[in-house]
């Protein structure tokens, strides 16, 4: 019997931070919880960091993830935004490190490549592929920060060497995973 693992994925942000938890058992993936931490109404950067630490700590206490995966900040044109994003990521990391939970970082391009096969995929394409991989349907009002966080968790799973399938072709994948194929009506 395969050991169960729970992975917490985090898409850091200073206005909205996404989180997603998946359960891995053997080669089966299941989304167990996802959402966002709304930060834009808080008046200072310090309060935002405090809220991130508190909420990530709550998620860790409630779901007891075995591993945490984060999207690494990327350099844009605004250095100040990058610094704020790095702080947000650091606070989320600290919540996991205090509990001695292993953490990994993945570049946005690596996450998109892992999920869709295209490092330049849109957030909507990532969400669409996650619906197929996790056999779920996102509501129209699901924020893409939440689906991005699920993508970080799935990317970590895929990068950890426990691939969903070792199939060499789509035909082989279908034969190995008949329960994962959705029949069209």
Structure description:
- Strands 3-2-1-4-5 form a 5-stranded mixed β-sheet.
- It has helices at 45-63, 79-97, 108-116, 123-134, 144-159, 170-176, and strands at residues 4-11, 16-25, 28-38, 67-71, 103-106.
- The protein starts with a strand and ends in a 9-residue tail after the last helix.
- It has 6 helices and 5 strands, in the order βββαβαβαααα.
- It is globular and about 55 Å long.
- A hairpin with a 4-residue loop joins β1 and β2.
- α3 crosses α5 (144-159).
- The mean pLDDT is 88.
- It is of the alpha/beta class and 185 residues long.
* Strand composition percent: 15-25%
Q: How would you characterize the largest beta sheet?
A: 5 strands, mixed
Number of contiguous helices = 6
Secondary structure class reads alpha/beta
